[in-house]
């Protein structure tokens, strides 16, 4: 990590254009347990790209169940209100222990294949079927997911239940079968480590965070060099260059992995 290089990371993201002309937008799907920070990450990226605090993806810090109920696509505005960056995020209902609560793993698999329409309200009791209005029977290349991102709170790695880990493993195997690249972001690093809370530049010096990353890598099988620690914007009212750098570094990797995948399509 090169501290002080925020502008370099930012310019890379701003200048990104897909090489494969068949695909207009890079689709990044975020999934993970309830309260991991999926919506907050989307808001944080939007905040950095807009240069001001934003909150397009709704967040609820008090709910014990997923606040996100629908399959929602978020575009990042570029310049005027009618132009957008060529990458989009999909937010999804959180994973939970109970089989009758939270998003079903089968629905995430359908989303990766492009079969879930934007705005579909997830039903924890039953998987999306071909007869449902929310089912997209003829997905285009743009509808399909190009990068799968697992979002995990650093302070919750040890508390991940076997049920949730099992669902994430199942989703990961399905994504691998489809050839979809996968990365993970470790959120709430300042809450998990006192040294990082003092200064975010201690993130790669923290033995505690390294241990959390190793533990998560062991549970899910995602390599260490594809797990990116970040701090989302939550209580701040102004931007911080070091916070931005971590988020932009993770975003750049998502774009690179997604671009490699799309060029093979």
Note down, in words, how this protein is organized.
There is one protein chain. The radius of gyration is 17 Å and the shape is globular. The chain has helices at 6-15, 38-50, 105-112, 162-178, 189-192, 194-198, 207-220, 241-263, and strands spanning 26-31, 72-77, 84-91, 147-153, 182-187, 227-229. The chain has one domain: P-loop containing nucleotide triphosphate hydrolases (Rossmann fold, 3-Layer(aba) Sandwich), CATH 3.40.50.300. With 265 residues, the chain is of the alpha/beta class. Strands 2-3-1-4-5-6 form a six-stranded mixed β-sheet, with helices on both faces. It has eight helices and six strands. A hairpin with a 6-residue loop joins strand 2 and strand 3.
Strand percentage, roughly?
A: 5-15%
Main beta-sheet strand count, sense and barrel state: 6 strands, mixed
Compute the number of strand runs.
6
Principal-axes geometry comes out as: globular
CATH class: Alpha Beta
Write the element-wise H/E pattern from the N-terminal end onward. Answer: HEHEEHEHEHHHEH
> What is the end-to-end distance?
31 Å
CATH superfamily: P-loop containing nucleotide triphosphate hydrolases
Counting structural domains, the number is: 1
CATH topology grouping: Rossmann fold
Tell me the radius of gyration. Answer: 17 Å
Secondary-structure-derived class: alpha/beta
């Amino acid at each position: 990590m090169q501290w002080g290089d925020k502008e370099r990371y930012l310019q890379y993201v701003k200048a990104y254009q897909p090489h494969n002309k068949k695909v207009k937008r890079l689709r990044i799907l975020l999934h993970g347990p309830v309260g991991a920070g999926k919506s907050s990450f989307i808001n944080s990226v939007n905040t950095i790209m807009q240069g001001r605090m934003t909150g397009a993806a709704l967040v609820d810090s008090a709910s014990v169940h997923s606040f996100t109920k629908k399959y929602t696509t978020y575009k990042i505005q570029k310049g005027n209100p009618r132009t957008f960056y060529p990458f989009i995020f999909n937010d999804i209902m959180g994973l939970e222990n109970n089989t009758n609560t939270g998003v079903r793993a089968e629905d995430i698999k359908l989303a990766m294949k492009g079969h879930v329409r934007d705005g579909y309200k997830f039903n924890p009791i039953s998987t999306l079927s071909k007869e449902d209005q929310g089912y997209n029977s003829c997905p285009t290349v743009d509808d399909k997911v190009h990068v799968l991102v697992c979002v995990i709170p650093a302070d919750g790695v040890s508390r991940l239940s076997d049920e949730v880990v099992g669902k994430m493993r199942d989703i990961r195997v399905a994504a691998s079968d489809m050839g979809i690249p996968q990365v993970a972001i470790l959120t709430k690093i300042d809450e998990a480590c006192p040294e990082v809370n003092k200064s975010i530049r201690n993130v790669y010096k923290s033995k505690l965070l390294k241990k959390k990353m190793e533990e998560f890598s062991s549970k899910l099988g995602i390599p260490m060099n594809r797990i990116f620690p970040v701090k989302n914007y939550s209580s701040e009212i102004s931007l911080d260059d070091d916070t931005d750098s971590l988020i932009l570094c993770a975003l750049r990797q998502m774009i690179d992995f997604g671009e490699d995948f799309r060029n093979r399509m």
